[in-house]
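Is this the right way to post structure tokens for a design question? Let me know if I should format differently. Anyway, here goes:
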């Protein structure tokens, strides 16, 4: 049992990691077929992971509803939304029911699932991002306080960029438009590339650790 729970996943991870790493350096049709088959298996495994995640989500909120913890009413709304959306989606897919009229989506009519997405999900997403804007503004106010030279430089660059991106600011100070483009295309682009390089190196290092069994957090027990 210990071998099946600990050692076998490490062996599978090592073999699969080595094979799919070498696949990128083998210019052969069979290598492309292997990548295609591997992608299909990843989708199948991802489907099981999705089922596991939804099951875990239902369990967590079921416990919250049972204990009537603070905010358990939102858990009921979550249950209702998931069940209704799933039922409507399956009805549209298998039976072919459509919402009468509306914007054109399928055969000149909006499906019931499309109606739920357009008039429920989209407004909720807009509300979430609108609220998020206030949190960003609050964080920016705290971060841009000129308490040091670096903070003062960040504040100056932020003000110039905001002036250059707003039509009124660019109208009042036309030079801010050119400076903003230079900041975004030169300074910001170089920093973004450096961050991407760092993330890539970190991903490569983590992948090597996982392939060789040095990182075992995915087994649930951490390093041994």
């Amino acid at each position: 049992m210990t071998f099946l729970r600990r050692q076998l996943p490490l062996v599978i991870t090592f073999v699969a990691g080595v094979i799919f790493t070498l696949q990128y350096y083998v210019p052969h049709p069979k290598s492309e077929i292997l990548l295609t088959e591997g992608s299909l298996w990843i989708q199948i495994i991802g489907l099981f992971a999705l089922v596991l995640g939804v099951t875990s989500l239902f369990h967590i909120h079921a416990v919250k509803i049972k204990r009537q913890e603070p905010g358990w009413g939102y858990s009921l709304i979550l249950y209702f939304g998931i069940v209704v959306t799933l039922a409507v989606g399956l009805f549209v897919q298998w039976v072919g029911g459509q919402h009468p009229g509306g914007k054109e989506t399928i055969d000149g009519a909006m499906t019931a699932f499309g109606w739920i997405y357009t008039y429920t999900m989209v407004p909720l997403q807009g509300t979430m991002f609108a609220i998020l804007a206030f949190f960003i503004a609050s964080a920016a106010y705290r971060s841009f306080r000129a308490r040091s030279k670096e903070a003062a430089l960040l504040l100056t660059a932020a003000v110039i960029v905001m002036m250059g991106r707003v039509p009124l600011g660019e109208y009042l100070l036309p030079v801010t438009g050119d400076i903003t483009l230079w900041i975004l295309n030169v300074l910001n682009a170089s920093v973004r590339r450096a961050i991407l390089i760092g993330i890539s190196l970190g991903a490569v290092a983590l992948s090597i650790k996982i392939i060789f069994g040095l990182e075992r957090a995915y087994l649930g027990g951490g390093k041994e």
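Format looks fine. Someone answered above. Worth noting: The chain is about 80% helix and 0% strand. The longest helix spans residues 29-67.
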